[in-house]
Amino acid sequence: MTAKNPSQPNGAVIHMDGIRKVYDTGKVKVEALRGVDLEVQDGEFVAIIGPSGSGKSTLMNLIGCLDTPTGGTYRLSGELVAGLRKEQLAAIRNRRVGFVFQNFNLLPQITSYENVEMPLLFGGISRRKRRQRVEELLDRVGLGERMHHKPTELSGGQMQRVAVARALAMNPDILLADEPTGNLDSSSGGDIMELFQELWEGGRTMLVITHDAALARRAPRQVEIRDGLVVRDNTNGSTDLMSDSIVDRPID
Amino acid sequence: MSWIFNPLRQLGRDLRTQKMRTFLTTLGIVWGTVAVSLLMAFGQAMHHQMLKNTAGLGNAIVIAFPSLTSMPFEGLGKGRRIRVNEEDMELVRQRAREVGAISSEYADSLQLKLGTRTMAVDVSGVSPEFGEMRNMIPQMGGRFLNALDEKNKRRVAFVGDELAETLFGSGDPIGQVFRLHGSPFTVVGILQAKEQDSSYSGRDKDKLIIPGSTFRALTGQKYLDLFILASNVQRTKEATAEVRGILAGKHRFDPDDEEALGIWDTTEMFQFMDSFMFAFNLFLGIVGSLTLVVGGIGVSNIMNVVVEERTPEVGIKMALGAKSRGILGQFLAETLIITAVGGALGLLITVGICAVWPTGTEEYIGVPRVSAPVAALTASLLGLIGLVAGFFPARAAANLDPVVAMKMN
Ligand SMILES: Nc1ncnc2c1ncn2[C@@H]1O[C@H](COP(=O)(O)OP(=O)(O)O)[C@@H](O)[C@H]1O
Ligand SMILES: [Mg+2]
Predict the structure, then answer these.
(1) Which of A19, A52, A57, A179 to mutate to test the pocket of ligand 1 (most atoms within 8 A of CB)?
(2) pLDDT by residue (tens digit) across B278-290?
(3) Mean pLDDT, chain B, as a whole number?
(4) Which pLDDT belongs to residue A67?
């Protein structure tokens, strides 16, 4: 199911050029992104850091086609996203990207199994294949025994692992995580980081927003956002340039 | 498959979190459905009953009474009696093209003897066509008078059901013999009981009907008391005018003299009743529909609440790749399910009410029942209301911005 587009000129999965995002709340206009250029190659692991309110979540939503930019061009595997219809964007969210959120965003009334099953339902996967896939994924994140528990019966770390399983359901090639360890204790957070590391080694493109210096350092590349602009893009994998003072800012 | 099962599962979940509100909403639909279907069931029953009562007199017939002239004509003064006999009837039969059937009626009160009993009964001498024209349906085992009876002046009688009861009790009256005006008569048929809410000379159930030829021979009466004619329901005016013209020519009275030949056009009653019942049913339908619309507004309200409460869920689903169309369908399906359940319950209640409706009121309001048209009309009205009630909340959900929706947690 991993879709790769061979026609892209330089192999970039994500190619953003002068991306702007303005939130028009009627009275005031908030300029969340003010011209972001970003290129991510297939299989990269990128940590996105920056202070609260700098535009990290906005950027991630645009990358995942959960929202559309006000200006600039965004190509996903070479395809211009601006020209796509609502239903096509839904299909991209279903197949190309998996989201992991800080607050898990699981549906509380249904079981882990049913939560993980949802993207497969939207993707029109047959009942038999859905069952197979959900069981495989929950085993993969170590929750095979908790399949029929509801989120309220799980710990934070377990909930986030269900969320990761759900994000992987349609086997997307891009995983987007917005402060995935923000609500977890350090031990559970470490488990999630471990899981991400494995997924990356398995060939996925990973973008992780984090305040956690340790997790940020795991990524070979760090992109720092401030006031809606990319202020630093450390691609050489050296963490020396990253001052802990930035990474360790309080969580919003 | 999931498109039908998922909404069902979802609905179950919503019902649990919204018990009271869902209950009241469904109650609104139930109540509205009962109102619509019950009013229509009763309206239809009344219409049926009125038609049936009127048909007791006959199937859209015109009744004509030869009477006194009210206008001078060709030197003849007014107040002259017009006497019509069987020869005139023959003339009308030959000449009138608008008339489908015609029957004379001779009427008198005659003495009847059965065993030791003697009583006066209303006797009518009629043509064989009379039976069909006046809805004189015989009970099993009997028949109405026929052309041979008329031709051979047979002494046979068709007896009203109540008169038969009085005369013969519970035994089989067919073939029984009694004396009328001194001559023996044989019973050939008994009237099947019918509703009759209008008449011109007593109810049919109390009458004794014999052939017109026999009547004339028996009593010596030459001129008929009245005659009835049937024509195309839409053309009774023309038929009446034609008959009046033929008789006016023969008996030399002014064809415009309305009183020389008195007319009772029973089709006018049918037409009036049709429009009256249409208006009445329309009124009942509108009253019921308004109740149902109020129920629909309730459903729309609860769906708005449901959408609002499930906004984060909608956002999450969109993030996972749910299409707007799917979200729309999900909420629409839920609304339709609530409406369908409420509607089915409502129809069941109406069917139940009709089933246990006490007997004894049939004569006035007929037998209420949920007929296919009533059920179909109610169901389509429900479907429409469900669609409209569900559409706007569902569209609101489908148009949610996923990023904003997810933040509503
Ligand atoms: N839906 C929205 N409407 C209006 N303003 C928004 C909305 N989402 C984010 N913002 C604003 O945009 C800016 C960037 O927000 P966000 O991308 O969430 O930052 P971060 O994730 O880095 O904390 C902030 O000033 C925030 O208040
Ligand atoms: Mg954020």
Answers:
(1) A57
(2) 888 888 888 888 8
(3) 87
(4) 95
The CB density around residue B101, as the number of other CB atoms within 10 Å, is: 16
Beta bridge partners of B118: B113
How many contacts (CB atoms, under 8 Å) link A and B? 59
Give SS3 for B392. helix
Per-residue pLDDT at B298: 85
What residues of chain A lie within 8 A of the CB of B316, using their CB? 105, 107
Tell me the C-alpha to C-alpha distance, in Å, between residue B136 and each of A99, A201, B55, B192, B397: 83, 97, 10, 7, 66
Q: Which helix (H) or strand (E) holds B300?
A: helix B267-309
Q: How far apart (Å, rounded) are the C-alpha atoms in residues B358 and B273?
A: 26
- Classify A245 as helix, strand or coil: helix
Assign residue B61 a region: left if phi > 0, alpha if psi is -120 to 50, beta otherwise?
Answer: beta
Q: Cβ separation of B403 and A103 shorter than 8 Å?
A: no
What six digits make up the tokens of A133?
Answer: 């896939």
- Residue closest by Cα to atom 2 of ligand 1: A23
Task: Write out the DSSP string of B201-219.
Answer: SS-GGG-EEEEHHHHHHHH
Token pair for A22: 């303005």
φ, ψ for residue A18, nearest 5 deg? 60, 40
**Which residue shows structure tokens 């008449």?**
B199
Using CA atoms of B298, B302, B303, B309 in order, give the dihedral in degrees to the nearest 10. 170
Q: Per residue in B126-151, is it b (16+ CB within 10 Å) or e — as a string?
A: bbbbbbebbbbebbeebebbeeebbe
**pLDDT above 80 (res B317):** yes
When pLDDT is averaged across residues A172-200 and rounded to a whole number, the result is 93
